[in-house]
Amino acid sequence: MSSRIQQASLVARRRLALQTDEFVFALSAPTGSPVGGPAGSVAGAVAAPPDLRFRPGQFISVRVGSDADQNPILRSYSIASPPERWGELALVLRLVSDGIGSRYFDALRMGESITFTGPMGFFVNELAHSGDVVYVATGTGIAPLLPMIEETLRRSETGRVILFWGLRSEADVFYQDELNALSTRTPRFTHQIYLSQPQGFCRLRGRVTGPVLELLPGLREPTFYLCGNGQMIEELKAGLVARGVSRKRQIRTEAFFD
């Protein structure tokens, strides 16, 4: 893990859902990095991409502008790609018109660079889970959770891995292919998406707080990872603690503002 100033250039952007985009960046090799290529090759050799070491769930802080005194304005974004995606990192942003970070990223063009520090943060998986693992997200809070879920599923643990994801409407849903692929790969993983303001028929309507608390009696030694809206986190954390879940040992949180 490194906190030095680094750079990465935009290589891809795609629309995931309403006002939600994924930005993919190629890490910039520092000056003087060793070159790579076939043995004996000199012509066309390029600097090797840096190795950005991080754990799923961590974030970077991006410089998105400067204030009146030319001090950097920083915004933090969770890394949405797994560490195994060597040389690249992905960020998922909900773009809002009055957000300085949103305006900065929306104006980026292919090949342009961002400056950031990190990765950093302590919202990561426990090194081992003795029982079931429950991930709860709202909005783009799913971004760090997907790599965290993939990491947990690669382990030899036997507990269930359950995702609850709350969104506003059908237009906000994304990552369906990725989640369905995980469900197909292993019966350990299940996911439920709840819509608070669906535009049509919706089997799972409402907020995620109630369903998570209802599931609690059937869980075995659960660990909870809550990411997204601060109000959801506080309400759900209070409900879990009131039902005997240890705040320190069994609950991990990361608040998003979207």
What does this structure look like?
The chain has helices spanning 100-107, 142-153, 176-185, 209-215, 230-242, 247-250; strands at residues 6-17, 20-27, 35-36, 46-47, 59-66, 72-78, 88-94, 113-120, 133-138, 161-167, 189-195, 223-229, 251-256. It is α/β, with parallel strands linked by helices and 258 residues long. The chain has a six-stranded antiparallel β-sheet with strand order 6-5-8-1-2-7. Strands 11-10-9-12-13 form a five-stranded parallel β-sheet. Strand 10 (161-167), helix 3 (176-185) and strand 11 form a beta-alpha-beta unit. Helix 4 packs parallel to helix 5. The protein starts with 5 loop residues before the first strand and ends with a strand.
Taking pLDDT < 50 over at least 5 consecutive residues as the criterion, the unreliable ranges are 31-48
User: Which whole number gives the mean pLDDT?
Assistant: 89
Q: In oligomeric terms, what are we looking at? A: single chain
Biggest sheet details: 6 strands, antiparallel
Shape: globular
Question: Roughly what fraction of the amino acids lie in strands?
Answer: 25-35%
Order of strands in the sheet with most strands? 6-5-8-1-2-7
Computed over alpha carbons, the radius of gyration is 20 Å
End-to-end CA span: 27 Å
What string, H for helix and E for strand, traces the elements in order?
A: EEEEEEEHEEHEHEHEHHE
- Separate helix tally: 6
Helix percent band: 10-25%
- Number of strand elements: 13
The chain-level structural class is alpha/beta
